[in-house]
Design brief:
Blueprint: H1 2-22, E1 35-40, H2 49-55, H3 67-78, E2 83-89, E3 108-114, H4 118-123
Antiparallel strand pairs: 1-3, 2-3
């Protein structure tokens, strides 16, 4: 009886170890030659491409979209560029910005894309 219980406990430990370890797999491919990061410095007054696209109407979301969602959806649907990740970097405290519509807001947006789309993103004003 003790041997059966011991074998059963070992089986349970092995099963749960595999179950939990399987959840720790990174499904994103590593950043390498096939992917790249590009940056954008957004401007004031809703003058960024994704903001103008959203303001033009006809785009429906169940809830108010985040800026990251707008960036991703705009470049995917309007430019044919798959955005793999969006990071919005807030302005450094104390950064002075002008209020003109052509002035930077003070933050920046970094996106991870496939390298094949880098040239097009550069043409669209990303660095």
């Amino acid at each position: 009886m003790a041997l059966k219980l011991r074998n059963f406990l070992l089986f349970l430990i092995a099963f749960f170890a595999l179950f939990f370890l399987a959840g720790c797999v990174n499904i994103d491919p590593p950043i390498g030659d096939e992917q790249a990061w590009v940056s954008y410095v957004p401007v004031q007054c809703g003058g960024n491409p994704w903001e103008m696209w959203y303001a033009s109407g006809g785009i429906n979301y169940l809830a108010e979209p985040t800026e990251g969602q707008l960036v991703q959806d705009y470049y995917t649907t309007q430019q044919g560029i798959e955005i793999l990740e969006v990071i919005i970097i807030p302005p450094v405290p104390g950064t002075d910005v002008c209020a003109a519509c052509s002035c930077p807001r003070g933050d920046s947006i970094d996106v991870r894309i496939y390298s094949k789309d880098s040239a097009k993103m550069l043409e669209l004003g990303w660095t």
